[in-house]
Amino acid sequence: MVVQNVLNEEDIAYLKTTPLHPNAVDCNDRHKKLEFKHSVHRIERAMKADPTGKGQEVYYKVLRAMAWADKKLWGKLTKYSKVYPEVEFITYDCSRDGKPKFIEPHVDNDSVVTVVAALSDPSEYVGGISMFRGDGRGGKDRTWTLGKGDAVFFRGESLLHWVTPITEGRRDILQIELSKK
């Protein structure tokens, strides 16, 4: 499910500061067999510690949107007494070394619901199309070029997805996985 304008300009401006926050963690927690070229910062602590309250506002805004999407489409969250939000600021930046940035087809381990929200306008980069595997019954793969502030909600643990190579510019996203473990 794609929803336009989940994040506004103020939300995006705030999120772009979070990787610099002392509570943000530069991480490399991808599976060793997964091929990817991007940088990741875990930012949930930074958002919760924001003294202005903007971090908590954006954090809960997106979590409510994830719960809404799940209720409309899947009804999976009600099966778990607790889920664990993993909030990541992900950057695919070709401007430094000119090498393509991407992530290969994968599923998000244990993510009942995943959201990817665009923090960059598509005019700021080349490539970077979000791809989702077809239904396996002859359905074609689905593609989305998210506009700035738009978000795609999906079942991360069961839907194979990837990003086509970004060959120019920089693509920033907010990704949240509601993990059952």
Task: Give a written overview of the molecule.
The protein is α+β, with helices and mostly antiparallel strands and 181 residues long. It has a single domain (2-179), classed as Sandwich (Jelly Rolls), CATH 2.60.120.620. It has three helices and eleven strands; from the N terminus they run E-H-E-E-H-H-E-E-E-E-E-E-E-E. It has helices spanning 9-15, 44-49, 54-73, and strands at residues 2-3, 25-27, 39-42, 84-93, 101-106, 111-118, 125-127, 130-132, 142-144, 151-154, 161-179. Strands 1, 2, 3, 4, 5, 6, 7, 8, 9, 10 and 11 form an eleven-stranded antiparallel sheet that branches. It is globular. The protein starts with a strand and ends with a strand.
Question: What's the quick description here?
Answer:
With 181 residues, this protein is α+β, with helices and mostly antiparallel strands. Helices cover 18% and strands 36% of the residues.
Secondary structure layout:
Blueprint: E1 2-3, H1 9-15, E2 25-27, E3 39-42, H2 44-49, H3 54-73, E4 84-93, E5 101-106, E6 111-118, E7 125-127, E8 130-132, E9 142-144, E10 151-154, E11 161-179
Antiparallel strand pairs: 1-10, 2-3, 3-4, 4-11, 5-11, 6-10, 6-11, 7-11, 8-9, 8-11
